[in-house]
Predict the structure.
Amino acid sequence: MSRARQLLVMAGWLLFGAGALSQQPLLPRTLAPDQVRSGLTFSGPDVQSLQADAFANPGLLWLARGESLWGQRVGPQNLSCQDCHGLKAGSMQGVAVQYPKLATGSGSLINLEDQIRACRTQRQGVSDWGFESDGLLAMTLYVTEASKGLPLRLSPDPRLAVHLQAGASLFQRQQGQLNLSCAQCHDQQQGRRLYSDRLSQGQPNGYPVYRLEWQTLGSLERRLRSCYAGIRAEPPPWGDPQMRQLALYLTWRGEGLPLEVPAVRK
Amino acid sequence: MTQGLARLQWPHNIVAGDVVKVRLLVQHPMHTGYQQDMQGSVIARNVLLWLTCTLGDQQVFRVEPSSGIAANPYFEFFVRAPTSADMVVRWQDDLGVAGEWQQRMFVADRKTPVP
Amino acid sequence: MIPLPSVKQLLGRRDWLRLASAASAGLTVFTPVLGQAQQIGFDQQRTVADMLTGLVGGNSVRELGVSLTVPALADNGTLVPVSVQVVSPMSEQDHVSHIYLLSSRNPVMQVAAFVLGPWSGRAEISTRVRLAGSQQLLALARLSSGECRYALAEVIVTESACMDAS
């Protein structure tokens, strides 16, 4: 990093430090609002046409499964999601873009998957859907679909500031055997090629995503852990708060990008 | 008999005698036997051995895929549509798990033009 | 680009009409040889002859009448769209009975076999394949007469730069 840039970032952090004490977080924006671009714009023509295909997009299989799960009555009280929430289209609109958020009871930072799992175990009284299980992915995609096209937006909740700061630090931290930070690839080198791959901005507006590399649907948490593996860093355990803080930062960083459901990426 | 998850599509407004394009998407991981799961263990090979489509009582399509067909197999084929009939898709994989998906194809009678 | 033997060279050296008979149109489509997995090095890709033997039998085979559509540069080797079209009236007397997709480099040579008939109306199929690296794809059509037709296509497959193995 050049000296001038270092000074600029330091100044930004000082400003942020001051801002953290106030209501609005004053994080230095590394990407201007008109510069944010979806991963779809960095994808090749086959990936783009696959996402656009209203029939053959593989993510649609999970969407169909999510729909049947929504109406499925389970547990000792024979409850379905529909019994409490009604039809998805009405009740779930705008819900996915509120996450990550602070859980009402515990006050801990949770993502949409955590909320769905909590509903299932606490409200429906059935066994937990494990991380990346078919049911959890299908339900997450189904609920997210109700927010399709809505822009990413950070909730104005002032209690999120400390988590946002933590997420920003994680984004800037150089780690792993390759000693790379998220920022180095996805802020500074975005748009350029790593061998034949075009580096995207690492935006979170297409999750859960049908990733060709995985040949299945997967969550943002799985994708972030993959990035850790990519730079040869130890990924945090599943459910780690750091992954939710990073996801929160990414949401703020990508504000304005519309949700793509189901998204397809390489 | 097990059920599977699939999507079937053909054009609207089919008239008897039309040759229509059928699109089929089946949920199946098509494990090659070369990949590892998230814990690092090799996932055993499990691919579709065969898949057939019958329209009414006529088999109109059959494919024998290999691990070289991508996960969540996708196929497009053509079929003559003589009359309304049920399209039944059946498949079986290496583990012996069978799947089935059914959808009715509505075909209008061909109206002969008035001379 | 690795130099593959041209089709003209192969046709000149071998008499296609007299290949050892392994299967005729009536026998099963999926033979053990075609299903065997192999490790193929970059410079050791299967030839057109390798891919056709076993399916053509003693019948004539010509490189015409078949359209094989595949991207020249694949976004990702795990999902590559492929289309095969064969010129045919698809009548009782003259139709395509089978279409085979063969790979010069995948561990399993026969990617898929499709069974068609006069009920198909059109000899055209599409699917999505996995390609284990840059290679040649071959689409072989067997007609009701037993004759065979084929087409070839080259595909370049790039690997993901970030090896995240997850």
